[in-house]
Design a protein that fits this description.
Strands 3-4-5 form a three-stranded antiparallel β-sheet. The longest helix has 21 residues. By secondary structure, it is mainly alpha-helical. Among the domains are: about 170 residues, no CATH class; about 160 residues, Alpha Horseshoe (Leucine-rich Repeat Variant), CATH 1.25.10.10. It contains 30 helices and five strands. The two termini are about 45 Å apart. This is DUF908 domain-containing protein. It holds the Pfam family DUF908. It comes from Puccinia striiformis f. sp. tritici PST-78. InterPro entries: E3_Ub_ligase_DUF908.
Amino acid sequence: MTRIKRSWKKAPETNPKVVVLIKEFVDLPDPELIAALEDAITTGWQYPRSDLMFWIPVLNRFDAYLETTIKEYELRGPGSKKEKDSDGKEVKENDSNRIGVQVNEFAPDTKRMTLAIFGFIKLLLENCTNRKLFSSYDRLNDFLLTTDTDVLLANLRLILRSAQQWSVQHQDMNGGFGISHSRLLDLLQSWSSIGGTEKANLTLVELIQQSIPTSSEAEDSPMDTNPLPSNPQHSPEVTFLFYRKVDPKPTAQLPIAAKPTADEKGKGKDVATGPSTSSNQPAHSPTTPTPKSRPKEKSSAAQTSPAQPLAPVEGLATIHVSADTLASGRRPQDILADLIEQHQLPIDCRFKLFHRIRIAIALRNSLDVRRFAVVRLLALAIYAHTTDETTAVSKLFIYEPGLISQLSELINLEIGGDGLGGDIQAAAFYALEGISRYRGKIAEVAGAVGVSVSHGTLMQVVRKMAKELERERAACKDEFIDSLFCFLSCLQLSVYAGSLLVGAGVVPVLVDICKNSHPNQIGTVIRAVTNLDGLLYGFTSAFALFNQVDGLKVFVNRIKDE
């Protein structure tokens, strides 16, 4: 299947090593391709900036593999793009036969290949021009239905990189990003809807702080970091409300049961009093014998049609998943399948209920709490980048007014920590970056992170990162460094926030980062120079601070060293 069809007007030259790499990725069989992609992701981009046009054959192969995986594991649901036949007509699909999420686990090679594809596409989008050519968003949208947390995280990171680039080009939020907003809302929903446990009343910050192990023994056995009390009152449980719609076919049969009332000419009073006992009985017969016989007719009529009470009732319905069910060790998708059969859950509500069940089970494991916290924050960042402010306020911020303050607390966690602290901080910075693009939220974000003061939360994190980077083996992850600089770049777009950032003393810290001569920190120095360039040209006071710390000498000496 060819996803991208475009030809050069005049074929330009490219790096010969890139040409060899492209041919290798196209011709290699799948087992060898997995190892080649993983090696390319580990070593990083080692070539000059490329054009995504050269990588069309590779992207088409990736898309074909993802399409095959989606069909094999039934990763389709509401919001998925309809498939078309050879004539271009949409193929009708029976959604009732699917539970709406992935059922079977990925095979080991399939999982490795999927993770490698997501990681390498992200690498291409970061180091290539002509990024608009990438058009496999429908595949990424389907992979949001996966039950594998590793694949879900890799998918969200890839979508976030595309969303960041898309929001810059579509500031009016028109044109459609290609990712279902309803699925993103399900992933970023608050965990307070999960009851039955003391953790349900805790904020996301408190949950993460409780999940961080405090000793080496806790790190060796993450399942025991927060042991679940044996008391069932402290066990998580799920209550889910949904509106059940009944098909018109069974409801059309209901008037048929009332047809005998039209034959009143043959049966007289006996049938007429059946359906109208409450209204006509007192007027016709005040005597006692007749009311005694009429209830018998009702009961016999009820016995003749026992299927009617079993039919689903249209209206608001409630599903309760007990703590015993969640603690049974069954997979969330298996629990969901049983609930669908019992309650005839509509296809539109299945992923939302599945994610709640998944979170309720994850609350028993500290490691899962942190992993799904990253999932929630990444989904929030993508949603903020691809949704206009009015929609975000009506569907998100009105229900979580303290969300920004919670994010500001998350960025102040210890850098590195147990290996996941950096991921949580990075996801929080990405979420703040997306929210900062809303004009009505930039002031709230700036106040929450303390942009205006040198000892605020943001400047403390920036200084801590700069000091950590001076070590030969810094504990900072590249994702955390990228998220922090992305957030600083976003603040510069606002005159209000940018001026506060300059006044807080960010320029001297960025100059200190430019002095870093470690070979593995070249990318960090480039990010610092890019941020300095924006500050110097956007704010006049930044240039004076740049001269005070001899920034020009630092740049000249760095050029000589290079």
